[in-house]
Amino acid sequence: MNQLLLTILWLSISGSLFILIFFFGSHVVRHRLSKIWQYYIWLVVIARLLLPFSLEVNLLGNVYETMESVAAIVIPQQETFNEISHGNDDPGDIASETLPSTADTDTYGETDSGIADETQRAPLSQQLDEVVTLFRSNLWLLWLVVALILIIRKITIYQSFVRYVTAGRAEVSDIEHLEILGKIMEQLNIKHTIGLYTNSLISSPLLIGFFKPCVMLPTTDMPDFDFRNTILHELTHYKRMDMLYKWLTQFTICLH
C-alpha cells in the first residue's frame, strides 16, 4: 500500500508546480481574465492534487520514476543485508567463516566468545529489521490518519463557530427586507429556502450552514441599496457553491 503514499507525493510535487505556474501567470494575465475566471481556475490545481491522472510531462515523469527507483533500491538492499547477516544455515560454513586461524587469535576461548556475542546480537538485529519493515509498510496509513485528524479538527472548529453564531441570532421579520431577499432569490433562480438573521456578535455579513444555509447580518439598519447589494453578494456565494469549493480546498490542504 505504500504505492498510495508514492501517488500522493507525486500529486503533491506536480500540484506544487501547477501552483507556481498559476501564481506567476496570474500576475501576467490578471487584467485579461475576469474575476470569476481568476477564482475558479484554481479548481485545476485542486483537480491535479486529488486526481491521479497522467500528464505527458517528461520532467514530472522523471521525478516520479526517481521516487519509485529509490523505494525499489532501499528495500532490496536491506533484504540483501539481512540475508548476508542471517541467511547462512550451514554450521560448517559458519565455522569456516567466523573462526580465525591460530595465527590471528591468542586462544580458542576468545574466538568461541566472539561467536557467542554475534549469536546474541543476531536476534536483536532481526527484531530491529522487522520493526523498520513494519513502519515502512504502514507509512501510508500514518499519513492518512494525520490527514483525517486535521480535517476532523477543521470540521469541529467550524461547527463550534456555527453554534456560537446561531446561539445569539434573531430572525429578520421586516416585510420590506424579506421582499428584497425574495426578489434576489428569484433573480438568481434559487429554489432552496434561505434564512435571514441578524447577530450583533459578528462584524461582517456571512453565509453559514451547509445543509440549512442562512444569511447572517450584523444589523439590518442600513440603506436599501446597501442591504440589497449585501444580500446579493451572500446569495451569489450560495449560487456558485463557494462553500463546497472552500471545503474541497480544506480537504486538499489536509491531505497534502
| Structural class by secondary-structure content | mainly alpha
pLDDT averaged residue by residue: 78
Q: Indicate the proportion of strand residues.
A: 5-15%
What overall form do the CA principal axes indicate? Answer: elongated
Helix count, DSSP H or I runs of 4 or more residues? 10
Distance between the termini: 17 Å
Q: Residue ranges: pLDDT <50 for 5 or more in a row?
A: 55-60, 94-100
Largest sheet: 4 strands, mixed
Total count of strands:
4
Rg on CA atoms, Å: 32 Å
| Main sheet strand line-up | 1-2-4-3
Helix content: over 70%
Walk me through what this model shows:
It is a single chain. The protein is built from ten helices and four strands; from the N terminus they run H-H-H-H-H-H-H-E-H-E-E-E-H-H. It has two domains: 2-141, no CATH class; 149-255, Zincin-like, CATH 3.30.2010. With 256 residues, the protein is mainly alpha-helical. Helix 1 (2-29) runs antiparallel to helix 3 (43-50), helix 1 packs antiparallel against helix 4 (58-86) and helix 8 crosses helix 9. Strand 3 and strand 4 (214-217) form a beta hairpin. It has a four-stranded mixed sheet with strand order 1-2-4-3, with helices on one face.
Label this structure with key terms.
about 5% strand, 10 helices, 4 strands, Zincin-like, mainly alpha, about 70% helix, about 260 residues, elongated, four-stranded mixed β-sheet
